[in-house]
Amino acid sequence: MVRTTPRPSRSGSRSPKGLTAVLSAATFFVVWTLAAIAIERNVLPPPWVVAASMVDEAVSGDLFFHLSATLSRVIAAFVLAMSLGTAIGFLMGRYRAIDSVLDVWLIVLLNLPALVVIILAYVWFGLTEAAAIGAVALNKLPNVIVTIREGARAFDPELDQMARAFRLGWRKRLFDVLLPQLQPYVAAASRSGLSLVWKIVLVVELLGRSNGVGFQLSMYFQLFDVATILAYAISFIMVMLAIEILIVQPLELRANRWRVRTH
To answer: Is the residue at 129 inside a domain?
Structure first.
């Protein structure tokens, strides 16, 4: 008789994780409050002062306007980088000739500082929205290519042989054999890329845009308004955390379902 080990319930596994997250956040705010009490308020304002500044910016409408401007740039640059990076990485992983031709360019992009790309984009194409989004996408592109290339190299050769044996068409082979194996790598590139893209977007806005969170950070830096700087930074971090928890993590779990084995 085969004995089966009962699985732990999902609800039981989630509650300790949620409790840990709440305790971690509470600890953060306690440490922040104590540090604000010990340090001069102008240098590190306490949480309630930052919250009041956040409310003021939200009531005036500035917070939502600049958050939406930054978020739109993040989405545009992210989609562009993921689309091109997935296609190029797939081709480099599957075909050695393409990999040998593009590998040098990939190394150059990996080692090219983001600030240099942003400045050159503004100098060559002007202080335009297209230059800003293109510079961010170009900075993210090599990381996507590397991840997807490794995924394409890790394809199961037995599945390829099966597809050839059954004479599957290129479309069915792509969508039913190749892409399912690539999904975990796409999810990994998406998760790491999202955090990288929004940080570069802030730099792009700080250097050459007239709206967005980066522009606001630059303006309030000149006014030495630390409370409003933290208000904008924390607001956008909250938006990105919501995207991570509600969208990215569920998609990553779905992409890795094939790895789960029942015992």
So the answer is: yes
Question: H helices within the chain, ranges in order?
Answer: 10-38, 47-60, 62-94, 96-111, 114-125, 129-153, 157-165, 170-173, 179-208, 213-222, 226-243, 249-255
- Overall pTM surpassing 0.70 (yes/no): yes
Residue 7 counted as domain residue: no
Q: How far apart are CA 238 and CA 232, in angstroms?
A: 10
Number of structural domains in the chain: 1
Q: What is the Cα–Cα distance from 121 to 130, expressed in whole angstroms?
A: 9
Nearest to 231 by CA among 213, 207, 215, 244: 213
Contact 102, 88 (CB under 8 A): yes
Exposure on the CB side of residue 190, measured as CA atoms within 13 A: 19
Check whether 201 has a pLDDT greater than 80: yes
Domain that holds residue 219: 44-258
Question: Phi and psi (nearest 5°) for 126?
Answer: 85, 170
Tell me how far apart the alpha carbons of residues 235 and 124 are, in angstroms, rounded to a whole number: 33
- Of the chain, the end-to-end C-alpha distance in Å amounts to 14
Q: Domain for residue 10, yes or no?
A: no
Q: What CATH number corresponds to the domain at position 177?
A: 1.10.3720.10
What is the spatial distance between Cα 168 and Cα 242, in angstroms, rounded to a whole number?
Answer: 41
**Sign of torsion over alpha carbons 175, 181, 183, 186:** negative
Cα three-residue angle 224-230-233, rounded to 5 degrees: 120
Tell me the per-residue pLDDT of 1-23, one tens digit each, with 9 for 90 and over. 444 444 444 444 445 666 787 88
